[in-house]
Amino acid sequence: MLTSEDKYLARIIFRNRLLESDGNSFEHLFTTIMNYAEPEFKQIKPWGKIGDRKNDGYIKTKGIYYQVYAPEDLRSNYPDMVKKLKDDFSGLLANWSQINEFYFLVNDKFKGVNAEAEKIMNQLITNNNLSKGGIITASFLEEKLFSLSDDQIKVVIGIIPDPSKIKLEYNTLNEVISHIMELSLEQAHVSEILMPDWDEKIKFNQLSSATAHLLNNGYFQINNLQKYLDNNSQFLADDLRDKMNEIYIYEKSKHTGDELFWAIVNKASPKNISSYQSAVIVIMAKYFEACDIFERPDGVENDTSH
User: Fold this and answer.
1) Cα-atom radius of gyration of the chain, to the nearest Å?
2) Euclidean distance between CA atoms 109 and 127, whole angstroms
3) Paired strand residues for 106
4) Which residues are within 8 A (CB) of 106 and not within 5 positions of it... i.e. 6 or more apart?
5) 298 lies in some domain
6) Which of 13, 59, 152, 294 is most buried per CB count within 10 Å?
7) In angstroms, rounded to a whole number, what is the distance separating the alpha carbons of residues 47 and 286?
8) Which domain holds residue 284?
């Protein structure tokens, strides 16, 4: 059985492969995973002059169609991406029947896609009365990968190094902390943030006004944190949540109030330096609101189902 550490290493290997995959190599990765994840999935290979008729793979019984786009540099190819999206869908309509869902898979290399492309895709879905559809990205493949059995993950990834035999200092928590530390606080975003009403929870957990102030400051980066989590698979978000909950459960047996707050900060921080601690507090603000850390005033035990 793959442990959390095994899966984190598998994720690093998979992400590196995605970052290096363009064109056919990315499409091959997509079809390999989909063949395991969806038993009825069928790959459509280009054939002579007729090509693949704008269908890289589909689930016929459900009417779900996929088209793949993986240029070397997506950001400099957005006009081409929009054109390909329109042309591929038009070709799909002309050559295939019973189209219920259409997905345009883009190797965004975990950076997100242009809002204009999303707008056009939504128009295609609405104008053609599709039940579902959308632009899906690298995080979709990562999500599918970790929905597979351990043996299937190993087939896709290959050999996963034994965590006990290497010095593993980089984990999900450290990855997110490093990302937050690189962010700048944008004034426009701050004005748009609706601060949570968590005064009752602050009092219930015996936290001081100074600690509440720190949590409020951390919350200003919530949108940037959530954007990063959204551009990655659910594995990252779940593992981050579980690690913070694990630290909380461990420390609450020894501390309460502000002492508990700082015990979590120090336990989660790779270094006892303010920049690291500030990044941890951003993460804590997210999970404080979601009730994955600290107790809810209604007395219901925290869980990790958020």
Assistant:
1) 22
2) 29
3) 69
4) 69, 70, 74, 81, 113, 135, 136, 137, 138
5) no
6) 294
7) 50
8) 172-289
| CA atoms of 25 and 28, how far apart (whole Å) | 5
CATH number at residue 51: 3.40.91
Q: Residue written as tokens 């962010």?
A: 183
Q: Convert the pLDDT of each residue in 212-247 to its tens digit.
A: 999 999 998 888 898 889 888 888 899 899 999 999
* CB contact at 8 A, 102 and 125: yes
Q: Is residue 288 exposed (0-12), middle (13-18) or buried (19+ Cβ within 10 Å)?
A: buried
**Tokens representing residue 300 in the block:** 């219901």
Q: Are 219 and 202 in contact (CB under 8 A)?
A: no
SS3 category, 194: coil
Q: Which residue has the higher pLDDT, 48 or 93?
A: 93
Distance CA 183, CA 114 (A): 20
Cβ burial of 81 (10 Å; 0-12, 13-18, 19+) is buried
- The answer to whether residues 269 and 277 touch, using CB atoms and an 8 Å cutoff, is yes
Q: Are 2 and 10 in contact (CB under 8 A)?
A: yes
**305 domain-assigned:** no
Looking at this protein, which amino acid is placed at residue 25? S
Shared-domain flag, residues 14 and 145 = yes
Beta bridge partners of 59: 64
Encode pLDDT of 42-66 as tens digits: 998 766 445 557 899 999 999 999 9
| Interacting residues of 44 by C-beta distance below 8 A, sequence separation 6+ | 52, 53, 55, 56, 57, 58
